[in-house]
Amino acid sequence: MTTKLMGQGVQRVEDQRFLRGQGRYADDVAVGPATLHAAVLRSPHAHARILDIDVSGVLDVYGVHAVWTYDDLTGPMAEPLPLLIPHPALTHGRTQYALAKDEVNYVGEAIAFVVAEDRYVAEDALDRIRVDYELLPPVVGIDAARAADRLVHDDVPGNVGARLEQEVGDARAAIAAAPHRLALDLTVERSACQPLEGRGTVARWDPDLNRLQAWTSTQSSTGVRAALAVKLGLDLGQVDVITPDVGGGFGVKINHPWPEELLVPLAAKTLGRTVKFTEDRREHFISTAHERGQVQHVEVGFDDEGQLLGLDVEFWHDHGAYTPYGLIVPIITSTQLLGPYKPGAYRVVFESLYTNTVMVTPYRGAGRPQGCFAMERTMDAIAEYLGRDRTEVRAVNFIQPDEFPYDHGLVFQDGRELEYDSGDYPAMLEKIKALVGWDEFPQFQKHMALQGRRVGIGLAAYVEGTGVGPYEGAHVHIETSGKVKVATGLTTQGQGHATVFAQLVADELGCRFEDVEVVTGDTRRMPYAVGTFASRAAVMSGSAIHLAAKRAKEKVLKIAADALEAAEEDLQIVDGVVSVIGAPSSSLDLGTVSVLSNPLRYAFDEASKRATQFSVGDPGKPPVPEDEEPGLEGKDFYSPERATFASGMHAVIVETDPDTAEITILKYAVVHDCGRLINPMIVEGQIHGGVAQGVGGALYERMAYDESGQLLNASFMDFLMPYVTEVPDGIDIDHLETPSPLNPLGIKGAGEAGVIPSAAVFAAAIEDAERIPITAMPISPSDLFALRAHLPPTEERP
């Protein structure tokens, strides 16, 4: 028998193509020589009324083919963009128009759309457009939104888009009665996804087929397809959306449709030419999406051991000027905040607020880093108050292994119960302590202090809901060549799907790994899908692919059993060959079985010659049985009853420079539980990437708006991201596997694990090094220097 590939660190099949520069991204799509290019005029103001738009000089520019403003849009295109995920608490949801109507609400909002022979001409033409504005007072930041002395939308009282409260027990009474109480005020500033590839869309209209084809850098090709059909008045069957290689998504590309994803196909259909739009980096900064920004107030009651008796959390979430993705981010914060702990009585309430800044949609972690920051800062505060070890306080609050499934009594982001399926948090704590050297650290800290060096250690734990529904599907087709073609509808942004999905198919079907080809994000191959986000690809599409391969295998065995005159249970499939167990000479390869599965009337080649109805089959039976279809394939969908919950713990040792306040990472350790591992090497790659983003989010990256709503650092000259020199070159990783009972593979998601606890773990380590409370993230050397400067003399660290 062949070695099972599940759990093996199989080398990624995608890498050689990418490393050799053979990737094909949206900007590489070339559909004919006559491609036109688009550019977008964007608002220079955060809040203004549009009085007039004069485009009279635009068409005089040689090479310009068309210009659109809102007044040129008709039908569904003139309506607001969809509110993708409604929620009863989102009482004042607002979305923008494809092109601004009457008013702009953030710097970067699309106002006009120009199509020309090339991008240079299109951008030059933008300079010919004259817009008269009446400036309105902007609302920038959570404090201004809460003050509500000015409004983003006149019809949204108090700038409150939504208010949501959930409570289990009576948290305020439990806190009041607790032996000990603490209150914390915390802040997490805005950051944003910065994928290597920005947004890009190419579209072509075929008048002969009455059909639209669009290529777009998205995390939801089927979502874009549905939006295009609705907005352009087409049947779903008239629209194909193909996602080529995507140079990173991280959440920003799950929002759909972006205005350009509608305007480019509209232009292609109107002009009868292929049209392309590729955003530049500044456009990505000012016109896509941000995340993270929250202000939090935590009150907690606990006993002498540090066990939580009551937890009351109130926070304010900055969702920007519009809410296309609903309340997903703050809902995740409010529920995932609990991590691996039993909170006693729990109350959480949040307000999601409008500001005149770029909209907020999920960014890797999607509300979890903020929740983890609140919970882990609370745990550290309790330990400090009681004078207990930080690991001990966490341990007394853990959900225990024999308590799963554990129902928190809350409603999660998918509208289903917040019920953890499996885990072993005490075992994980022991692993992370050993990995980082927790028990030995006090001695190391004393030793370093004798040298005048400040070091600190931090720990943070999290639980992550992964594999949210509603479904994903898969199609597995065995060719007459013996090759296996696999299609699933979700998209790929570099996660290694072609590798891990091929591993699953090879294991279940018994074919060679090298014979499996995986296609993702092409609605022609899989028209029904949801998308790639929320660490769901392996759980959702992996399970669907496993089930589809199982169906294909059942058909293989049925056909082969008939051909070999053997019982199905006596057959095995090894390296793509079906044979009778114990009699390997009685065998058929998968290609031959595929030939037998499709009795053609005409012979086009040697394979089909063997399959014509005149040369094969039992004369007493129809060539295709009544309960079968021709061809050797399997199709299935996986739809879970609820999310599955991965978990992990991170620990870091940092050194803070006593003079410059620079923060250096000395050691970083991760213990992670994503259920059964499909490919440990790819999981570790995901963790490494997440930690790198987490380092950036904790120590460097923030969106700096001034009071007028101008983004001050909308370039890589000013928006600081960590280089390889700032990311730890060695991350110690250990795995814990508690299989999920909710899917056939026992797996959980892993894509966001590396980034979730970063703010919390760095805050804890810096606080331990400096003996200064760290309540706001990110923290730069300048921030730390300022914190030191504001310490009273008696509180200065020795």
Automatic annotation (TrEMBL):
Presence of keyword Oxidoreductase: yes
Gene3D superfamilies associated with the record: Aldehyde oxidase/xanthine dehydrogenase, a/b hammerhead (3.90.1170.50), Aldehyde oxidase/xanthine dehydrogenase, molybdopterin binding domain (3.30.365.10)
Positions of the UniProt region annotated as Disordered: 613-632
One annotated GO molecular function: oxidoreductase activity
Keyword Protein biosynthesis: no
Residues of the Aldehyde oxidase/xanthine dehydrogenase a/b hammerhead domain: 20-137
Key words of the record: Molybdenum, Oxidoreductase
One Pfam family per UniProt: MoCoBD_1
NCBIfam families (alphabetical): CODH_aero_grp5 (NF040766)
Name of the protein in its database record: Xanthine dehydrogenase family protein molybdopterin-binding subunit
Organism: Nocardioides anomalus
